Structure formats: structure tokens, C-alpha cells
Amino acid sequence: MSASVLRPKLRRDLRQKRRQVIAVAATVLIGVGLFVVSWDMYRNLQRSYDETYEQTAFADVWAHGDDSVASAIASLDSVDTVEQRVSADISMDLGQGAIIGRLQSVPGAGQPELNRLIIVDGSYLDPEVEEGILLESNTADNFGLTVGSPIELFGPSGWVEGEVVGIAVSPEWLWMAPSSEELLADPLGFGVVFASHELAESLAPPGSNQVVATVADHAVEAAAEVASAAFASGATDAYDRAHHPSDQALQSDVEGFRQMAVLFPVLFLGVAALATSVLLSRLIQSQRAEIGMLRAFGFGQGEIVRHFATYGLVTAMIGGIPAVVLGALGGWYATGAYTSFLSIPFTSRNLNPSTWIVALAVSALMGLVAGYLPARAAARIAPATAMRPLGDIAIGRHSWLEKLLPRRTPSWALVAVRNIGRQRRRSAATMFGVVLALILIVSAFVMNDSINEVFTRQFHEVDQRDLVVVLDGNADEDTLAALALVDGVAAAEGYMQAPVLFQSETGFAAQQLQVYEQGSLAHEFASTITTDGVVLGTAAKDDLAVEIGDVIGMALPGFAVETPVVVAGFVDEPISGFSYLPVQTWTELTGAPTPMAVLTLHRDDDHGSVRTQLVDHPVVVAVEDHVAIANQAESLLAASRFFVGLMLVFAMVMAVALIFNAMTVTIGERESEVANLQANGVGRSWIRRTITLENLVTAFGGIIPGLIIGRILGAAFLAQFSTAQFSFDPSITMMSLLLSVALIVVAAVMAQVPGLRSLFRLDLAAKVRERGA
Amino acid sequence: MPPTENTPLVSLHNVTRTYGEGETEIRALDGVDLKIDHGEFVVLLGPSGSGKTTLLNVIGGIDAATSGEVIVDGQSLAGLDDRSLTAFRRDHVAFIFQFYNLVPTLTAVENVELIAALTGGGRSDAERTLGSVGLADHLDRFPSALSGGQQQRVAVARALAKNSALLLCDEPTGALDQAAGKQVLDLLDELNGEMRTIVLVTHDESITEHASRVIRMVDGRIVSDSKR
User: Fold this and answer.
1) B100 vs A190 pLDDT, higher one
2) Closest by CA position to B218, among listed B61, B30, B2, B39
3) In B, residues 107-136, which contact A (CB 8 Å cutoff)?
4) What is the mean predicted confidence (pLDDT) over A623-633?
């Protein structure tokens, strides 16, 4: 019927407006492509982790405690499997000098029931080889060790030699995080080894028993209940999967992809919808007479709506279909690259037709919705009105903006200012587009600046430890003096770090306790730590629900210390899992000075040579390099900056696409007007000035709200990445704000160039013959 | 009331059409009474702003009378909703406009086919109709590649494609030179000879030669009505 006869018109209209159509399609392509890539990655990664966890029987609950804790856990109905093992931080030498690493025990004659290992090189432990050790695969990579390499482990009877018999991937160490508070580790300052129960028990200090368990169907609530029950039965530490350091880090990435799969496409598709709507509104405006004719000849409103809504649909699908193809390929490739980077043993890269269907449906819906409103408005135009020359686009009126201009403002500026109010809806759409583009740009900057701020604050202001050394003895005056004499060391102070469990009337909080000298150079405290009590991190404050002056229980596993302490204060630090005591209090509690020292250096970049000297120092057992950890954080920042850069590129494409569309229609509808001006001798520079000024002033109208909303949404976006242990305070620098504005101005200037060019190539004779505007 | 040969094709009684309100009110039609019979060639004459185009639009159902009664081909237009008005226009009237209002992105034959399809016609009907207005060799040309006279002949063909009894022409020669204008008027004469009723709005006195009836309007009122 007649709708099919309109198809050639649709096709040719699309071809005629191809630049604008491509601009919209590019925005759809980015939005839908991002959705497919990130949603596929989210699903594939989750499946890969699930598959890995299933194949390796990854535990649901971990608890440090003895047999009574294991019995208490085993007695719960929801618990499927319970296994006991040794898990302890001990000194070890993996060929790069002594470090503190994690020793975990496994059965000598076969795989454990839970947290099974995947042997990627060599073989599993052999009961006949007493000194046989399995080395965790990331550790093997970091230290350059292979099967047959000798290593040394430090136990109560001194150094014990071992031999690497196999390299193993463990579900617990897919991400090398020593604890929830230390999601980043010094690659050459931390390692993981697996030894038989017998060997591990001979090396680990007392209180190193750990219970691991699974619950039916891996039920999250049941696992949390088991962890609580473990605490109640005397466990010094207990957590479920959600609090397991490695899984926590991996899930935070997965969650990031999920968030990205929703937030960015919403933003891009919103902009694409707006751009489509602007494009169609102006197309319809220019076709008013045609629409009036069609209506006069008997075309119904529905046919007109369908025709223009189809225009929106086709425009969206031009971007949506390639987006699905590219997104699926991107998701496939990116999942593989990501799991390979993390050495995830089981990679599940499924093609996800449901994602494609959703992506295509969303694209189609966007196109239809964007096309529907202007199409409905078009269909409602009374035929006689539609065919009347000189529509509302030619209405001129004074503008309140011109009151801000000097009395003798040149005519080109006056025209520019008045034109802004000439098509208010279109001007508003341009401003709204600028707002959306700025939201993305400012959000990207908020993320970048906040992450920079957090890392600078944590690693360069709060935490100023350069090196931490485990001593062969205690940090007495002579030892510290000897360490201070090492070339490059600025100060050596007594220090200690250990897991600690706090208990209040309302809850538990597992934290890392750090012990510093009062007035330490290695840490910035908002208020000086005092001998009045413990200073808690915000995570502990929330978990314990305590105030300053409250008394809480403190248990230090491995030191046989369980004592009440007063809450002396709180610190609000980016990594909030740390609590602090002064050395004096530590000494009083344990009866001995601290067994570690913290060193600050004259220059951070000397840490390599100082570390080398310390490894061979007679009082040093192990060295932990915090400069290396900070550097690792810096390298992760580089990845974050790449992501932010990508967002900025996308934001610029989006901004240019939207402003280009808005501005080309603005320019397009002035063709007759400009042709008449040119025919009467008005120069190109006058025309260029007035149109440029109008476009830029319109764009500026969106800048302030864009900056404000972008800042707010950036903060909301960032909040999604904050955890109990790690919090971001959103911030943006003045330079980033100025750069955001500059990017929009550049986009606005770039976007109007094609329109202006076409304006100066008009057939003046033909244009001046056209009726109306 | 069903139409018969004796009932007029168009009947207007005390029709007014106003735009705006209060001091800005414009009375485009002011109590117009008019009857047009089948087969008439009526020319509406008057100066700019006299209400002749408004009258044409009200008869064609693309504008609504503010008050009064409008009956075309036995159908009263008062109170019709949009759907019914659309159906009325599709089935009863065809338009020819001063500026052709062709779809610039459709070829000549596609422009005609577009309208022919409304009443079940197809491409062959469109081609035949274009042939009847002398454009058989210009079927696949876009409007921009046709002269003004040729474009208006496409518009005439488009109007013919619906086979409507009533042809409403708004200044159909206003944008044409004399020769092209004559070609269009000759076409309209032929159509009138085939018993199509034509109502043509113009301010060109010379066109009255083609008319069977001339109605003059001033300030929204009919001031003279003469049959020739």
C-alpha cells in the first residue's frame, strides 16, 4: 500500500542526510558496541570464574582457628565439606632474597578436597619427596622459578631447603592479594607456596590452622552465617567468598564491566536518541509542505508516523547492527585477553545471542522512540498549515541575551543572539546534547582525577613506608641504628603489621594492625597515635559501631594476645582496613619490642639498591618493598588512564556527532536566508561570524549544567567502585574542568565546519527562488 | 443524505473561518453560502487575503470551518475526526497546488504512484496517467530535473491518479510562465470535459475564460457569482 511507495523516499532521504545519519549511527555504534563488549565480558568472565571455581572446588568460607572451630563449622546443616590446613605468612627465599610469603598446606598424597590445584608444569607432591614444594604460578612468573628450582623456607628451626616439583594455579590466587587490605602486593616481596601438611606444620608458627568449607549450593547467606558461627566459636578471622581477597578483586572487575554495560550505553543511546530526534525534527520541518500534501491527499496520521519512525529505526540500525558484530568480536577477544592476562585456567567464551537480541532491540527501540515524537508532531500538523509558506522558523523576536550586549553591537552578533531563541526547542536540544557530552567527559575526568587523588593520598601522603623489614630479632635501638646506617636510608623505626580481630558488643572487624612509633615519618596521621588506645579505620568503625572512648576486645592471633583496648580515634584513609597502635602499647601488650622495622629512604628511586643491601644485612630476615607496590599501583593507574582516554575519545565522537547534527540543521534551514544575504552582497565572513557565534553561544548554554551534572554523576559512578575496604572521594581538578570546556568548544567548532562549507556552495539563483525559509 | 444528480456536489451554508482571537482575530471567511454542481468549472477570483484559498481548503477538508455547514459529495464535514477527514480527502477530493508540493526525493512516476496507491492503483496506473499529461518520457526524472510546467503537470497527474470527482486547484498557474500555464489550463479543460468538477483559485482574470462560473470574493465574502 502507500507506505511501501514511501520507501524510495525513505531511502533517498537517508542518503540525502547521510552525514547526519552517519553521525547518529556512530553514536549508536559506540553505545551499543560498548554494551555488547562489556556485557559479554561480564557474562564470559563470570562464567570463566564460576567454571574455574567449580572445577577446583573453591571454598565458600575461610576461618582461622583450631579443631573446635572446624567442629563448629562441620556441625552446621548448611555445610557440605570441611577441610583443615595450615595457612601462615612465613619468611621464604625464592631466589631474590628473603621475603614474607604465604605457606599453605595440602595433602601430601593427593589433591585437597577444596581449593584444588591445577598443575600447569611438573607434578603434584610426591610423599616420597619430603622437600617437594608446589609453587603458585604467578609467584613462579614473578620470581622466574621453574620446576626443579631450589627455594628456602624459614621455620622455628631455621632455614629449610625445598625443591619446586610443580607449578600450580590456585583458585585462591588468581589475583595476588595477601589480604583484603592488601589487594596490591610487591611482586618480588610476596609469594605463595604449597607444602604437605607435615612440612607446613613444622614450619608455621602456632595458631596457623585454617578451616575451609563449602555450603550447599554455594548459598551466599549460608556462607555468611558460617563465617559468623566461626567467629562465635573462637575463630580469629573468618570470611566468605565475597570477602576473599582474590575473589573480591576479580568480582570488583566483573561488577565494573556490568556497571559499564549499563551506564555508558544508556548515556550514548540517550545522546543518539536526542541526535535522531533533532535530525528528524529538522527533516520534518523541511518537509512540512510534503507532509501537508500527503495529508491533503488522504494519508493518515498513522502512515506519516510510521514513515518517520521508520527513518529513526533505520538510522539506529545502521549503527546497531555493526555494533553487535563488532561488539561480539570485541567481547570474545577482550575476554580471552583478560583471562589470559590473569591466567584464569578455564575461559568460557560463549557467543551470547541473547546479548545481541537485547542490543538490537535496544537500538530499534531507541530509533523508534526518537523517531516517534517528531513523527507524531508531523502527523498532527494541519495540512493547510503545513503547506502555508513561512512557518514559525522565520519568526524573529528580541532576545533577553541582547540586553547584555553593548548598545552598538554589530548586526551579525545581534542576529546570532536572536537566532538562539528562534527555534527554542532546537537550541535546547543542542544545549542538552552538550550537557550529555559533558557528562561523559566530566565523568571520565572525575574518575581519572579521583583515582589519581586516592592513589596519591594513599601511597604518597598517608602511607610513606618505603621498605618494611622483618628482623632476625627485635627492633631495639642497636638494630634500628644499624639499619639507619644503610646507604640511602633516611630513618629506621620500630614497626609491626599483623592481622587483628576486634570485637565489640555489636560485631566483629578483621583488620590489619599496623604499629608505628609516635611521630613516625612512615605514616601521616590526622591526629597523633597515642598510648590511649587503638586508632581504627572507618571500615572497623562501621562494623563495630563504636565511638571514641568505647572499649573493644582485640585478639592478635600468633601473639597470644586477647585484651580490651580503648578506641582512641579514627582515621579516614582511602584504604580503610588498617588500624593503628603505637610501638609503646605494642611492647606493653606483647612484652617485647616489634619484630619489624619500617624504613624511609632519602630518595624513592634508590629503593632497589637499598633493598639489595638489606637482603644481605645480618639483622634482616625479609624485605617488603612498598615503593614497588606503589609502582604497581601506578601501572594499574596507566590502565585506568587508558580507559579514561577511551571514554574521552568516545565522548568527543558523541559530542561532535550531536553538535554536528544540531548545527547542520541550524545551518541548513538558513539556506534561503543566507542565499538572499549573499545575493545582496553580504560577505561570507559576516555569515560565518553570525552562525559561529550562534552555535557557540548555544553550546555554552549547556556547559555549566553539564559540568555540574557530570560532576554529580561521575561521583555516583565512582561510588559503584567503592568497597568497605577501599573508598573514593570524588574530585576533579580545575585543569580537568577547563579541558572539558575546551573539548566541547573544539567539538562545536569542528562540528560546524561541514555545514558552513556547504552553505558557501549554494546555488544562489535556485535558493532565492524558493518560497519562505 | 446520499448524493443524487440533482444535489450539489459542494454545499456551504453560512460558513465562517476565523484565525486568532480578540483584537487579532482575522475573519478569513464571513458567512459564505455556496453551492457547486457536478461538472462545473468554478473560478474563485479575488485579491490577496480575500479568503479564496481558505474557502478551497475548507471545501477540501484540509482546514475546518469555525462555524456553518460544509457538505461535499453528500458528506458533512462538520465534527469529523481526523481519521474520518483523512478518509474523506482520500475518497472525494484531489488537490493541485501553486508550488506543486511534489516529493523531491521521489521521481515523477513515484510521486504519482504514491497517491494512486491510496485508492488501490499501481505503477502502471501512474505511468498511464503521466502519459495522459504528456510526460511519458519523463517518468523517472526527479522534480528538480523538470521544468515548472512539467512539475505542475506531474501534480495534475497526481491529482488525476485518485480519480476524484472534485479537483481543487490553488493558483495552479501562479508559478508558471504563460505557455506552461496554458498547457495546465488546457489539461484542466479536458478534465472538466470528462465531467470532473473543478474549483480553481486565482487572481488572474484571464483564467475566467476557461470557467463555467466565476465567483469573486472580497474580505471573506462572495461579492459576485456569475455563470458563463
Assistant:
1) A190
2) B30
3) 107, 110, 113-115, 117-118
4) 85
d(CA A564, CA A553): 4
The pLDDT value given to residue A18: 86
- What's the CA angle centered on A245, arms A82 and A142, to 5 degrees? 110
Could you give the count of Cα atoms lying within 13 Å of A583 in the half-sphere of its Cβ?
20
Q: Quick one: which H or E segment has residue B130?
A: helix B123-132
Q: Where in B47-205 does DSSP place strands (E)?
A: 67-72, 75-76, 93-96, 166-170, 197-202
8-state DSSP, A205? P
User: Is the Cβ of A767 closer than 8 Å to some Cβ of chain B?
Assistant: no
User: Is A526 exposed, middle or buried (CB count within 10 Å of its CB: 0-12, 13-18, 19+)?
Assistant: exposed
User: Does residue A371 belong to the interface with chain B, where contact is any CB pair within 8 Å?
Assistant: no
Q: Look at residues A597, A567, A593, A563 and name the one whose alpha carbon lies nearest to residue A580.
A: A567
Beta carbons of A2 and B114 less than 8 Å apart? yes
Residues of B in contact with A297 (CB under 8 A): 89-90, 94-95, 115, 118, 158, 162
Q: How big is the A-B interface in CB pairs under 8 Å? A: 82
Query: H-helix or E-strand containing A336?
Result: helix A301-341
Per-residue pLDDT tens over the stretch B105-141: 888 998 899 888 888 888 999 999 999 888 999 999 9
- The label of the residue with cell 550562534 reads A694
Among chain B residues, the shortest Cα distance to A10 is held by: B105
CB atoms within 10 A of CB A276: 32
H or E stretch at A509: strand A508-516
Instruction: Over range B47-67, report the average pLDDT.
Output: 91
Chain B residues closer than 8 Å to A381 by CB: none
Question: In this complex, do A1 and B162 lie within 8 Å of one another by their Cβ atoms?
Answer: no
Give the DSSP H/E element, type plus range, for residue A34.
helix A18-56
- ipTM exceeding the 0.90 mark: no
* Cross-chain residue pair B110–A8, CB shorter than 8 Å: yes
CB contact under 8 Å between B114 and A5, yes or no, is yes
User: Are the Cβ atoms of B114 and A6 closer than 8 angstroms?
Assistant: yes
How far is residue A75 from each of residues A151, A568, B170, measured CA to CA in Å? Answer: 40, 39, 94
